[in-house]
Each structure stands twice: as structure tokens, then as C-alpha cells.
Amino acid sequence: MGLLNKGITIMNFDETYFAQQALQHYPHDNINVQQLQHVSLYCEEDSLKEINSFLQKRQHRGITFIGSGNYHYVTYLLLKDMKKPFSLVLFDNHPDIGQNKGDRMLSCGTWVSYALSNIPLLKNVIIIGPTGSEASRIQSPRINVFSFKGNQVYSTASILSAIPTDRVYISIDKDVLNPNEVQTNWDQGVMTINTLLSYLKSILQFKKVEGVDICGEEKLSPLQAILPNYQSIIHKNEKANLKILNSCLKGYEAQLKGA
């Protein structure tokens, strides 16, 4: 059990990650897609094909940093690489399943529905952490929601029991965390980083995790990045990224020991 694939990839839709120097210190693949148009929130078909082309050329497929939650739809492309039946475990303050059946363009708010409709190997989606009312309206036998509205607490055993497959892909949007932990460009949940890491550790221990992606950065321009108040945002977000990253790397080491 553990993280099956090694290596880190950082996607640069903008300059946000450039200011996270400790994260940059880790060996990684860089994917520069700053030149692409019509990719924020929604992604047009031509740009989606280009992003997929870049992803297929990467050497490291273990952990992918996507950037802002505006680009969370990239997870859809990463899921299409799966070769065996699997479950998606999504940590997110939003279900990302879309509001209208007529949603036809892939977006950061519809990609989960796209995945369920177009990836036959995806058997179930487990969404952990949403606080909004839309999560309570989800009625699908293939989606399990662990809402964090109020003071609800779930054991790691209850999370694991909801995952029916041995193989898992994990997607983390840091907007699932409370504002004391990170700052994102979307409304945020109430989860603590320690709770997230506890769930992550258990899934890595008991499931075969094919890959992990992480998004939820506050989009910053190079000018903003040098301002003191934005420096504190960068520090908080990078600190969370490094904690998540190191938990995943320990999961990969555990997989090697068990091989």
C-alpha cells in the first residue's frame, strides 16, 4: 500500500509557485502553460488538448501541484491516465459536480461529473470536507459525501469504509481548510491541516494510491508577491503544501518498503 508513483510535477498557469522557494527546492518537473488562453475557470477544447499533451510528457506522475482552484479541472485529465478500477477521494469545500445538467464545458466546477460520465474505470467518488448546502443535495449511488457543515467529525475508519476499491486517486483543494491554515481565492471550509493529514496518512497506509494532486493557491502577481501582507499568504500556503507533500512522500517510501 502507499503512493505507487514517484516524483513531483508543478504546473505553472501563472507565477504563483515561483515565490514558494522551499517547494521549488524539491526536484520536480515544470510544466509551463502560461501562454495558453481561455483556461481559467473554464477550459476550451484546444487548450485542454495542449495541457494533456504536456502532462503526457512528464516524467514524474506521483504528486502534481496544479495552482489555483480555477484550474482544478486538470484532475480530470490526470484521472484519464488510470489503468485499473479506482475511486477518487476529493478533499474540497465544493463538490465540483456542476449545477445544471446542461453544463457542457469542462470547468473547475463540473470536472467531477465529467469524470464520472467519461472515465469507466472510475467507480466511486468520496468527497470530504464541503460545507455548502449543495453537498446535501447530491443523490448518486456513486458519490459519498462527508460534509463538514457544523462540527461534524468523522473517524478515519468511516472514511476508509466508504472507499470500495483498492486503488485510489487523491485530489486536494486547499479551500477545504479553514482560513487560519491557508488563504485561497475561493470560500473556504473548516477542516484543520492536522485532520486532512490524518485522513491522508490512513488512505496512504491502507490503499494503493496511484497519484495525488494539490490545488488551492491564492493567485498572486509578481508585484503582489513582494508585499508584506502577501508574503504571509505565501508562507501559509507553502507551509500547507510542504506538509501535504511530505506526507505523500512518506507514503511512497512506505510503498517501497512493502514491495
Automatic annotation (TrEMBL):
Record's SUPFAM superfamilies?
Arginase/deacetylase
Among the GO molecular function terms of this UniProt record, one is: agmatinase activity
Example GO biological process: putrescine biosynthetic process from arginine, via agmatine
Q: Domain of life of the organism in this record?
A: Bacteria
Q: Which InterPro entries match?
A: Ureohydrolase, Ureohydrolase_dom_sf
Question: What's one Pfam family here?
Answer: Arginase
UniProt similarity note: Belongs to the arginase family.
Q: Which PANTHER family match?
A: ARGINASE, ARGINASE/AGMATINASE
Supply the name of the protein.
Arginase
